[in-house]
Structures are given as structure tokens and as C-alpha cells.
Q: What sequence folds into this?
């Protein structure tokens, strides 16, 4: 029984390089190997096949008749290997979906939809990041997120879908922080839309204010207001029974609604588009409440 010879792609690559460049020296440069290593690899390939593959006489090295036959197969083998690696890398990349969401939507608002998607498509690696909308938007613009759910000024940047996000002033149920001088505020760090609107409003009213509580956590901000630390500006849907809504009768103007918008990169995988549809459905339900 004839024993089959296994062709080493490393040997094939050196052989193709010598034929393409016509020189062991130039082949060594193109493969980042030494000249002696390239020569040894070609000799080993010839030994395995039992024939000479190169005409070494003359100024330029050329393939023999047998070498030309092997050359065609070598090119096809190396090309198929490159395609296999490229397709595997592409498949892995397509299986990852990177999503950025505001913290208040990373909890009960869309978590059931994300959990159901992950259960239905276990081969998809879903990476979710929550935080300030300004941070999420910067990452999306850098191409580090496939989908981004952010709050913005109405109509500022179009997306796949948008929903109104009504805001309101709130204080603790049994607190009267507007009577304090300066007025204590509970808010997010610099960069948050609510914080800028709060500072601008009190400056316009000529009311002095101070930062009484600053947190990156939405639950921390809500709890601080409930505990009476100060006044805050939050989405109306987040008001609890331990909050008191403030309005024009309390001396605070109405604040224009924000807009919750789902943004997507230009090129999305089929699964990423499906997730976007699930998010739109979840946001429709949440924003109708």
C-alpha cells in the first residue's frame, strides 16, 4: 500500500516564494526567513515528492515541469488556507454584538428582551455596556459599539427609532429643598444631560445652588432624592411614591423633553438587526407606560 505524503504548507510557501522571486535570497526576504532555511525547506519538499522542483542553473531560478505541476496545487492549497482563516475570523467577529445603553434602560426596561435574545441565540456573544449617554455616544462614534441607545436633544442625530423622554423636577416626599440657600442638587457627574440642564435652569433663575450628591448610579441618585439630599431632574417614568414632583407652582419651569434614540452602525449582521428590532419593541413598551 502506497504511503500518502502530507504536504507541509510551510514548505509549499517557501517553494512558491522562490518561483515567484526567481531567487533564494529574495524568497528569504519575502518570507522573513534565512536563505539557508528556504533552501533546506525546498530540498525537503523535493525529497518528500521524489523529484526536482527547481532549475537552479542560470541567473534566475525557474520551476521544472514537475515543479510547475506542484506549483499550481501549492497556490491552491495556500489560497484555501488563507480563505479558511479569513472566514473563521469573520464568523467570530459576526458572533459578537456590542451594545451600549443608559443605566436606567439596562435594568428592568430592556433586560427581559436582552435575556430572551441571549437564550435564543447562545452562539452570539452579547456585550452590553451601561453608563452615561455621553460616554456611550463617544464609543459608538469610534466604532466600538454596534448599537447604542442614548438620550439626546430631540432631532439632533437621526437613528433607527426614537421615543420622547419627558423630564420632571423631583424632591423627597417630605422634603422642601427649594427653600434652602443654596439649593442642594442631586445629579450625575459632568457630561450628563440632566446635570447641564439643572445648572442652566438655576443660573437662569438667579438661584444659587450646590452639589449635594453626585453619583454615576441611577439608583443612587433616586435614593438620595428620596432621602432628602436635594432636588434632581429625572425622567418622569422613574418617579416613585417617595418622590414629590415639582412644577411651576414651586417656582421651577417645565423642562423640554429629551429623546431616546437607538443608533446603529452602517453595516450590521443579521443577528444584530434582529436584536435592534427586539430593542425597538422593548422601548415601545417602556415608553408607553
A:
Amino acid at each position: 500500500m502506497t504511503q500518502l505524503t502530507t504536504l507541509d504548507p510551510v514548505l509549499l510557501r517557501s517553494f512558491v516564494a522562490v518561483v515567484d522571486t526567481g531567487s533564494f535570497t529574495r524568497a528569504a526576504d519575502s518570507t522573513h526567513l534565512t536563505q539557508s532555511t528556504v533552501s533546506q525547506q525546498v530540498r525537503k519538499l523535493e525529497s518528500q515528492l521524489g523529484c526536482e522542483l527547481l532549475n537552479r542553473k542560470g541567473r534566475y531560478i525557474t520551476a521544472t515541469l514537475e515543479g510547475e505541476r506542484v506549483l499550481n496545487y501549492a497556490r491552491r492549497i495556500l489560497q484555501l488556507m488563507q480563505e479558511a482563516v479569513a472566514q473563521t475570523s469573520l464568523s467570530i467577529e459576526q458572533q459578537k454584538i456590542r451594545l451600549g445603553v443608559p443605566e436606567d434602560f439596562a435594568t428592568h426596561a430592556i433586560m427581559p428582551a436582552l435575556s430572551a435574545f441571549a437564550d435564543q441565540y447562545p452562539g452570539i456573544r452579547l456585550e452590553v455596556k451601561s453608563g452615561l449617554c455621553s460616554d456611550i455616544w463617544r464609543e459608538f462614534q469610534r466604532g466600538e459599539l454596534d448599537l447604542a441607545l442614548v438620550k439626546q436633544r430631540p432631532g439632533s442625530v437621526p437613528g433607527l427609532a426614537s421615543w420622547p423622554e419627558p423630564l420632571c423636577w423631583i424632591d423627597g416626599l417630605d422634603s422642601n429643598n427649594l427653600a434652602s440657600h443654596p439649593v442642594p442638587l442631586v445629579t450625575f457627574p459632568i457630561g450628563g444631560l440632566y446635570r447641564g440642564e439643572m445648572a442652566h435652569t438655576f443660573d437662569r433663575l438667579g438661584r444659587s445652588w450646590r452639589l449635594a450628591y453626585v453619583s454615576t448610579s441611577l439608583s443612587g441618585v433616586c435614593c438620595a432624592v428620596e432621602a432628602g439630599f436635594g432636588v434632581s431632574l429625572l425622567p418622569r417614568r422613574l418617579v416613585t411614591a417617595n418622590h414629590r414632583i415639582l412644577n411651576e407652582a414651586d417656582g421651577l419651569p417645565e423642562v423640554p423633553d429629551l429623546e431616546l434614540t437607538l443608533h446603529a452602525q452602517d453595516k450590521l449582521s443579521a443577528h444584530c438587526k434582529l436584536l435592534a428590532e427586539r430593542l425597538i419593541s422593548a422601548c415601545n413598551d417602556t415608553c408607553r407606560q
